[in-house]
Design goal:
Blueprint (H helix, E strand, L loop, with lengths): L1 H10 L10 H18 L6 E5 L7 E4 L4 E5 L1 H4 L4 H22 L9 H10 L9 H5 L2 H15 L9 H25 L3 H15 L8
Parallel strand pairs: 1-3
Antiparallel strand pairs: 2-3
Helix pairs in contact: 1-2, 2-4, 4-5, 4-7, 7-8
The chain binds zinc ion.
Length: 211
């Protein structure tokens, strides 16, 4: 199966990607997600490309088991590695949901317990509450995971300036989000983010968190 992975990864190369038809690009993203799902021992999501206006690149729907990908990642060849990053990020959300809701009882000190609490009290965020959104555990984890996964391709895509630039940009955003949170929320930003999640759970009275 390693050979088929190689064929998929090769499609994202700068000398191949711009020449692929849009359908073939969507298929390449789907194959990338299938590889990810296999690595994470979870069912693969369907990748669906849609227009997204607000600058987001992707969205994971737990109910449909679909990863919605901004169609720009298919139409604009310069966004190829942003597309890869998005598949890794949203696929990590699929993994988080998978391990959080697979069984009812979770150990109180487990990562899955913390993630489930976060999912139930998820903060969508606005411009004013951006740090509550970006620093919540499941978003931070998905970005960390996607960044590391993208960086693992540094040999395969070496000498590709677009790859290098995308990695640098994703890295910078990851660091700047933390700096912004420290500035906006102060030294106890982690505690405040957690309190905000607990408040969201209380506000959504129809949802109960099993202790
Ligand atoms: Zn996310």
């Amino acid at each position: 199966m390693i050979f088929f992975r190689f064929l998929t990864y090769n499609k994202f190369r700068a000398r191949n990607w711009p020449h692929l038809a849009q359908n073939d690009r969507l298929e390449a993203y789907q194959k990338l997600e299938n590889i990810q799902a296999e690595k994470q021992h979870r069912p693969p999501c369907e990748i669906v490309a849609i227009p997204m206006e607000d600058g987001t690149h992707g969205k994971f729907s737990q109910l449909e088991n679909i990863i919605y990908l901004n169609e720009n990642c298919i139409m604009d060849p310069h966004l190829v590695y942003h597309g890869m990053f998005t598949i890794f990020h949203e696929g990590r959300h699929a993994y988080q949901h998978y391990i959080c809701f697979r069984k009812e009882k979770l150990h109180k000190w487990s990562t899955a317990y913390r993630w489930r609490k976060n999912i139930l009290g998820y903060e969508k965020g606005t411009e004013d509450t951006f740090s509550f959104y970006s620093m919540q555990p499941i978003e931070r984890d998905a970005n960390r995971y996607a960044l590391n996964r993208l960086k693992q391709f540094h040999r395969r895509y070496q000498y590709d300036p677009l790859y290098e630039a995308t990695v640098k940009l994703c890295e910078r955003i990851f660091v700047e989000e933390k700096l912004k949170a420290k500035k906006d929320l102060g030294l106890f930003h982690r505690w405040k983010v957690n309190k905000n999640i607990e408040k969201n759970i209380e506000d959504r009275s129809d949802i109960f968190l099993d202790d």
